[in-house]
Amino acid sequence: MIYFVSAGEASGDLHASHVMKELHVLDPSARFAYLGGDNMMSVAGNAPLIHISEMSVMGISQVISALPRLLAQLETAKRAIRRVRPEAVVLVDYPSFNLKLATYAHSLGIPVVWYISPKVWVWKEWRVPTMKKVIDRMFCILPFEPRWFQRRHKWDVEYVGNPSVCEIDQMMSSLPSRESFSQSHNLDSGKKWIALVPGSRTAEIKANLPIMLRAVSDFPQYTPVIAGVSTVSADLYDSLRGSTRILYGATGQLIAHSEAALVTSGTATLETALIGTPQVMLYRDSGSRIVYSLGRNLLNVKYFSLPNLIMGQEVVKELVMHFCTSEAVSDALSRIMPGKNDYTKQQEMYRDMRKVLGNGNAPHEVAKGIIKLIQK
To answer: Which of 1, 169, 187, 193 is the Cys-Cys partner for 258 at CB 3.0 to 4.6 Å?
Structure first.
């Protein structure tokens, strides 16, 4: 059977690749037409219609300037769906683009599966009626989402577990020793490290990394190490980091071997919590009080970081916009270091969060759901 899979960002490429692997197990004849990246390519064995490096944009100005390209990519995807006539269209996050594909596939009578719900419980709730109409099965990765969709929209969606749980457990099961890790990356194993995880987009890194570096300068007994991403220009990092070391492709291992982490909001906050490393979440962006006030009025949630959203309480200290200063970050970091009271409290909540998430194999459950939908 042929499956059409669409993921527009690096995280979606990873999650989609795991679902594709599981589909291969359940359906050895599975073939894929897809929009995605290198992880999906390694499973599919053929090149993507569009690579994620050509798709990812952030912010209104980038979207406007990239609009002709995005519209052309959307038409390319629609033509492929029309030509291939897949057994199912599988969409992974990337809502603005993928919701248009869902509407188109639905109009052709092709079953539509969505994995990793758009965060409509944060904002853009007006999307839900369209989603409910054109999506045949919605698979969620946050345990509170099914209750929200049912309560607010009388829509039955399914929680399949969180993929980060399995991914982090697999990573930790093969984690190299600290000595081996330090040798591989030319780090001083005699030092204790603080991981700096400033995000994966240029704007995030520009806004957050300088504050992280200023904050950790108050902890000379620790060595800061930056978790870099290969899709970001090395020149950008070099313009900001001074003499601070940077590691590529080893974020999880770096966090696991660090005493603490400063993390920009996103999936990395959840992964850090699952690893068990104490953390402070920060997100500077413009730092404007006005923008913060406007955003607070538009958003429907109390928290920004995933651990806090999952638990409904402050597991991780959040410093956002004008609250995100190097002094505030330094103070919050000092409170969660090993041996401090907030360290013990955070570790206990990390363990409670794991229980809430459960141990489900999300990609396997999604693949089973896709096959079941097609057979039905």
So the answer is: 193
Of the candidates 321, 310, 218, 217, the one whose C-alpha atom is nearest the C-alpha of residue 264 is 321
Distance CA 139, CA 9 (A): 18
Amino acid 324 reads: C
Say if residue 357 is exposed, middle or buried (CB neighbours under 10 Å; 0-12, 13-18, 19+): buried
Q: How much is the pLDDT for 294?
A: 46
User: To 5 degrees, how large is the angle CA 103–CA 156–CA 99?
Assistant: 20
Select from 140, 99, 119 the least CA-distant residue to 366: 140
pLDDT at 357 over 90: yes
256-291 pLDDT, tens per residue? 999 999 999 788 999 999 999 999 999 887 555 554
Distance in angstroms (rounded) separating the CA atoms of residues 22 and 162: 15
The pTM of this model reads 0.85
Q: Which residues contact 82 (CB under 8 A, 6 or more apart)?
A: 108
- With a CB cutoff of 8 Å and minimum separation 6, the contacts of 222 are 191, 192, 193, 194, 216, 259, 260
Could you report the per-residue pLDDT of 166-202, keeping only the tens digit for each?
Answer: 989 999 999 999 999 999 999 998 999 999 999 888 8
CA torsion angle 168 210 93 3 (round to 10): -70
Please choose, from the candidates 262, 285, 242, 247, the residue with its C-alpha nearest in 3D space to the C-alpha of residue 198: 262
Q: How far is CA 114 from the centre of its chain?
A: 16
Q: Strand 2-7 to strand 31-36: parallel, antiparallel, or no bridges (unpaired)?
A: parallel
Instruction: To the nearest 10°, report the CA torsion of 61, 65, 69, 74.
Output: 40
Single out the residue of 234, 239, 233, 269 nearest to residue 251, CA to CA.
Answer: 269
